[in-house]
Structure formats: C-alpha cells, structure tokens
Amino acid sequence: MCFPGGHRQSRTRGTVLYTPLNQLKYLKAMAASIKKLPDALVEEKVDLCIGNEIETVNKAILCAKSSVFSKMFQNEMQESKQNTVTIEDVRMPVLKSLISFLCTGKLPDNDVEFLCEVYYTADKYDISELHDACCNLLMQKVTVKNVFELLKMSISHQDECFKIFMMTFICQNFETILEIGEWEKWMRDDSKIAFEVLSFIDINE
C-alpha cells in the first residue's frame, strides 16, 4: 500500500482514499513556500496562453506548488524572459480550475470527464494536492460503467494508489460487471489490462 506525501489512508480490502484537503492548512503551506522564492518571482506575473485566450497569474503561485513551473521560471528559459507560456493539450476551463485551486486549495465538483482532464493537467505540471483532490472526487463517482476507463487512466499515469482503488472496486462488483456485459467490452478493448484485473481478483479472493 502506498501513502506518498501523507495524503492517503488505508481502507478495508486494500482500497485507498485521499484525505480531503484542509484549505487553511494548504494556504499556510503555500505562504511558507512563497516566502522561500526569489523576490522577483513574487512580484512578477505571467500570461498563460491557450490559443487566443490568456490567463494571467502570479509566478510565485505557480512555482510554490508546481515543480514544473518552478524549474521553468527559475531557469534561463524563454518563458522566464518573456513572461509568456503557451500551454499545450489543456483547455482553458481546465487551466482556470487549476489556477483557482492553487489560489484557494479548493476543487469544485464536476463531471468525470472534466475531472479526468484536471487530473491529467495536475500530473503534467506535478501539482500533488490537485492530483489528490481530483482522485478524491473521482473515487466518489466511480461506477461499473466508467471504472475501466479510470483504471486505464491510472495505469497510463503510473498511479498505483488510484489503480488499487479501481481494481478493488472491480473485485467487489465483478458479478454485476459480468451480468451487464461490461467484461466482454473490456476484453475486446484491452485484454492485457483485463487479464491484470483477473490476477488481482485471484490474489484478493
């Protein structure tokens, strides 16, 4: 079982939950991180560009919680000099949600598709608290219809804790999954992962 960063706690039969983020604690940690940054970063803003849309944010807010942005702005990169970053593979509503989370420590509930986009972005920019917040919301929305896609996402991102949760959900609901015909779809879609599911069920019986 894995508990990186102290955010995760165990449940019965190997399931994993992500402890809800305490906003005040998050903001205090953010303030402490910002104090350690160079003054120039605290004073400067950057334009994050997606197509023709622009979102402006303080560099320190990005650097305090994202190692990717921190390296970007503290190294001699073009973005650091021009104060402009072009964001690829992310929609503006998702970027706004990311920035809002960095500023407040709160991720509003949304549908599974949107949360998966936020999850991808949190992983891309290495924002662990946002990743955990996404996982916490997604775990509350898992169903026999969407669990396989969430499992595939966890595997593609090498997210072992999220993967274990999805595997355990499948194990606990396997009869229903068989009855409604989802299993055959999984076998046709990605038999390698389906066989891994069977191995997990065998180990946990």
UniProtKB/TrEMBL annotation:
Residues 44-111 form the BTB domain. InterPro entries: BTB/POZ_dom, SKP1/BTB/POZ_sf. SUPFAM superfamilies: POZ domain (SSF54695). Coiled coil: none annotated. PROSITE patterns: BTB. It holds the Pfam family BTB. This is BTB domain-containing protein. It comes from Caerostris darwini.
